[in-house]
Amino acid sequence: MIPKNKTILLVEDDAIISFSEMETLERFGYTVISALSGEEAVQTVEDDNSIDLVLMDIDLGSGIDGTEAAKKILEVRNIPIVFLTSHSEQSMVDKVRGITRYGYVIKNSGDFVLQSSIEMAFELFNAHAIATERNTELAVLNEELNTVIDEQNTTNEQLIAYQQELGLSEALFHGLFDNMTSGSAIYSVQNDGSRGSDYIIRSFNKASLKIENKTLSEVVGKSLYDLRPAIDDYGLIPVMQKVWETGKPAYFPVKIYLDENFSNYYENYIFKIPTGEVVTIYNDVTEQKQAEQALKESEEKYRLIVDNISHCITILDMDLNITYVSPAIYELRGYTVEEALRQTIDQILTPESLEIAARVLEE
Predict the structure, then answer these.
(1) Which is it for the CA torsion 86, 97, 69, 177, positive or negative?
(2) Is residue 248 classed exposed, middle or buried when 0-12, 13-18 and 19+ CB atoms within 10 A define those classes?
(3) Which region among 155-159, 184-188, 273-277 has the lowest average model confidence (pLDDT)?
(4) Which residues, 6 or more positions from 29, have their beta carbon under 8 angstroms from its beta carbon?
(5) Which is nearest to 228 in space by CA: 251, 190, 201, 192?
(6) Is pTM, for the whole model, over 0.70?
(7) Residue 243: pLDDT band by 50, 70, 90 thresholds?
(8) Are the beta carbons of 362 and 355 closer than 8 angstroms?
(9) pLDDT grade, residue 166 (50/70/90)?
(10) 285: exposed, middle or buried (C-beta count within 10 Å: 0-12, 13-18, 19+)?
């Protein structure tokens, strides 16, 4: 979900239009700062680090226009820019080609389109930042992944080149959709959206096809119920229905899904796109949950053995503070576990033994 405490810089040379647009954006829940010229916009971004997004009119009258101001802003900060214009001609789209932007909105297209475009810009900007961070972490963790990273970099370069050719934010969304590492599906909704059969698959990305082990032709046109017969008992459908009805994104936490073919843990993110379709982004975290369960069982076995062994086991930190003592302490020294944990090492050892213990620890 896009936090509503975001700050938007509105760049509009017409004061009356600027005032009206500010009211609309503030009604969405955003903090709004206005600038009446391209020069003022560049200076504002340089002086104010709280700005999260720039909503930029292309035609700004005298002085530099929106495209030139956008270039100067991007030289100062990497920040999402959404262009706002009253012109829908191809020439206007061509004018912003080559500038990294996250949307293109026609004025008077409606509050819903404006709000959705801003939210999509934030989502795309965050997705790009996360992808960049993950690539960096992979490079540091394992040099053996260099080949994979090179392939990923090639893919990223292709995606960037493709992104620069896009004229609409929807096309950018589909590019990210198909290449993201998480599974994702787009559904049209029929009836009241209260059952899995109401969600008809319009598209699956590559990651989701791999998870389901199916081809695109095998899933498009089918319902969510056709793929997952136990979906109505899983708990996800009411969340999807609420997102479809309200337009507010939601998160469905990790839960195991069970039917005759699947026994997997999934987490789901759900949001609605301007077309009215519902999008889910999900991850199969089965291996992670199994590892957590195995670790828990291992710890339980360890605890059972230690708590019942006849020998006393004591664990100390690097400052010789007692952090654990087994119940056998009572038979050995007559103290309960709680009493032993309150003791310090100098209360247990003679000065000579304490000196030996310190020396051994240092070695």
Answers:
(1) positive
(2) exposed
(3) 155-159
(4) 4, 5
(5) 201
(6) no
(7) very high
(8) no
(9) very low
(10) middle
